[in-house]
From TrEMBL:
It comes from Panurus biarmicus. Its main location: Golgi. 3'-phosphoadenylyl sulfate binds at residues 16-20, 99, 107, 209, 225-229. The lineage of its organism: Eukaryota, Metazoa, Chordata, Craniata, Vertebrata. This is Sulfotransferase. Disulfide bonds join 210-220. Keywords: Disulfide bond, Glycoprotein, Golgi apparatus, Membrane, Signal-anchor, Transferase, Transmembrane, Transmembrane helix. Its EC number is 2.8.2.-. The gene is Hs3st5.
């Protein structure tokens, strides 16, 4: 009696927030089954046109008592997505994992930079992209900056879903202390607490927590997770932090979750 079920919860973002780690760690729970790939159903018009049955068929097989979760971080920033998800299931649970916005932007940049380097292409320095050379102000047209203005995106979602349907995960804490963050998610998803410290062990070589499913099976995330960031000019970091500050305050106010972001 295995079935392919539509997700009961979706990790909608944020890109580079730790979306993969969150999905893999939630999958440690016996009642959670993950869609391994990013499906990009709601943000990609071509996929969306294929219809909900196409989406369902992309889901993994699970038992009826289990819940399916998928993650596609592009959902968070794509205009059409909230309405489309609402049309599928207006009571779906939405998970957003965030990191300190400047660190997230640099992580985003690092991923793009690595892609360019792989193709032997040169790329701008982060400082050049993040700061408008004419005004010397933060370049709000730069996508890595825009994505980190969490409140702007969340406000669009709130036109469709009440705040109670969202759970904010602290991506910085998921790196250093994953268990309490996962326990909060279990609660939010109404799951019995099943993920324990046994399931998470710190791997000093990787510098990250890895996952232990049972006595024989454990794994760390791929090497593309946990890249070394390039060093960024401190004045640029300060400028970005100052820029994000008011947006962060608004984000804390809306979500009811406060972070120690500078
Ligand atoms: P960095 O590469 O900047 O360190 P996403 O999956 O959304 O792309 O997020 C990637 C980020 O997940 C990584 O960013 C990394 O810091 C973070 N992360 C959190 N927990 C991790 C873990 N256990 N193993 C590897 N990366 C983890």
């Amino acid at each position: 009696n295995l079935v392919q079920q539509l997700p009961k919860a979706i990790i909608i973002g944020v890109r580079k927030g730790g979306t993969r780690a969150l999905l893999e760690m939630l999958n440690l729970h016996p009642a959670v089954v993950k869609a391994s790939q990013e499906i990009h159903f709601f943000d990609n018009d071509e996929n969306y046109a294929k219809g909900i049955e196409w989406y369902r068929k992309k889901m993994p097989f699970s038992y009826p008592h289990q819940i399916t979760i998928e993650k596609s971080p592009a959902y968070f920033i794509t205009e059409e997505v909230p309405e489309r998800i609402y049309k599928m299931n207006s009571s779906i649970k939405l998970l957003i994992i965030v990191r300190e916005p400047t660190t997230r932007a640099i992580s985003d940049y690092t991923q793009v930079l690595e892609g360019k380097e792989r193709k032997n292409k040169t790329y701008y320095k982060f400082e050049k992209l993040a700061i408008d050379p004419n005004t010397c102000e933060v370049n709000t047209k730069y996508k890595a900056v825009r994505t980190s203005i969490y409140t702007k995106h969340l406000e669009r979602w709130l036109k469709y879903f009440p705040i109670e349907q969202f759970h904010i995960v602290d991506g910085d804490r998921l790196i250093t202390e994953p268990l309490p963050e996962l326990q909060l998610v279990e609660k939010f998803l109404n799951l019995p607490p099943r993920i324990s410290q046994y399931n998470l062990y710190f791997n000093a070589t990787r510098g990250f927590y890895c996952l232990r499913f049972n006595i024989v099976f454990n794994k760390c995330l791929a090497g593309s997770k946990g890249r070394i960031h390039p060093e960024v000019d401190t004045s640029v970091i300060t400028k970005l932090r100052k820029f994000f500050h008011p947006f962060n305050q608004k984000f804390y106010q809306i979500t009811g979750r406060t972070f120690n972001w500078p």
